[in-house]
Amino acid sequence: MIEPPEAPAEAPQQAPAEHRQVPAEPSPALAERPPQVRRRAVLAGVAVSVLLILAIVLGSRLLRDFDSALLPYAVATVFLAFGVAYRYTVWVSAPGARRLFKQGWRAFFSVENFRRAPTALPRMIATYLGFQKFLGARSHARWVAHQLIFWGCVLAALITFPLTWGWFTFTSSTGSGPGYEMRIWGFKILGFGSLNVVGWLMFHGLDVAAVLVIPGASYFLWRRMKDRGAVTGQRFAYDLVPLIALVVISVTGLLLTFSSIFLHGGGYEFLAILHMVSVVFTLIYIPFGKFFHIVQRPAAVGMQLFKYTARRRDGQPVGDATDTALFACRRCGEPIDTAPYVENLQGTMRDLKLDFEAWAEYCPRCKRVLRGTAYLSHVKKGFK
Asked: pLDDT tens for residues 226-253?
């Protein structure tokens, strides 16, 4: 067993400047970085917004298929594109996120990784993005609720965005059905009858999405009102507003269908405006609130791919006895993670000038032991 370094056990109560987590004086590069990052983020947001506008114009065949009644939704998606590009650029500019981003794309484009594990990426997309199996380890109820919200929102996005942009159109040669054609960018994809199952699903897909979202969002709202751990750290604008917005969008969407079928259009205009306001607000809110993790999650998949491929050696499965890529804890010898992952973490610490990258070479348990030992040796003994 390798003995721990002397620094944690003999560190004075006030560490010298070179060992503090935050440097006493930031470097000029760090001082100049925020304005540059903001300018780069604004340029990225403008570029993505312009590209989306061009895609809307071209995809709707020079606006011939664009529905002017959906203009507020389309404008909101342009703001959404700007906000996502802006926030993502700012996020990736941070040292930790930048390393994660680079390592993820490097692992994605690596021919050697594909040769060793050709099915790794599809499986990780399915497990981390699609079914979020990591949530099941925390709570089965939370996993089910998250799946309802996820697939409901995915279904709603796949329907709403193309319709809003004029990419999808539903036309009838008779003007009122029952036969309809679905066209994408002006090309006929399929024909269907509005009175059969396919037609019902085509015209009520958003209702299905709402039925999925409401129980999932309601569960998380209930949990945030009852669970002591959730209540303690939650913030109204960050944690509750997104859930309330999802419920409002789903309920008003269902009420629109209810009004058209059972009330002969009674109250439809008011409900349509309320639904539009809630959707527009949510789309603009996404880049700057909790929903931004939707955009961040694919980067986590890239990092998982980087860790997974680093654990394989000549096609051996992860954890195999011949696997030599795992980094062992310097104190207890237990495997921490892959050596490339530990080196990547240490590089991020150096970029942030935290000056304690040696701690990445210890497992979580040994870190707690060393911290406790340092506390007993240098703090508590002063009270004897």
From this structure: 877 777 778 888 888 999 999 999 999 9
Residues 97, 339, 109: CA angle, nearest 5 degrees: 55
Which range has highest mean pLDDT (88-97, 167-176, 257-266)? 257-266
Cα 227 from Cα 28, distance rounded (Å):
45
DSSP state of 166: T
CB 216 within 8 A of CB 148: yes
Residue tagged 């930790």 (tokens): 96
Do 164 and 77 contact (CB within 8 A), yes or no? Answer: yes
Euclidean distance between the first and the last CA atom of the chain, given in angstroms as a whole number: 32
Strand partners, 326: 338
Taking the C-alpha atoms of residue 33 and residue 133, their distance in angstroms, rounded to an integer, is 37
Alpha-carbon distances of 329 from 108, 224, 293, 310, 369, rounded to whole Å: 28, 38, 31, 17, 13
Structure token pair of residue 323: 């696997």
The answer to whether residues 110 and 181 touch, using CB atoms and an 8 Å cutoff, is: no
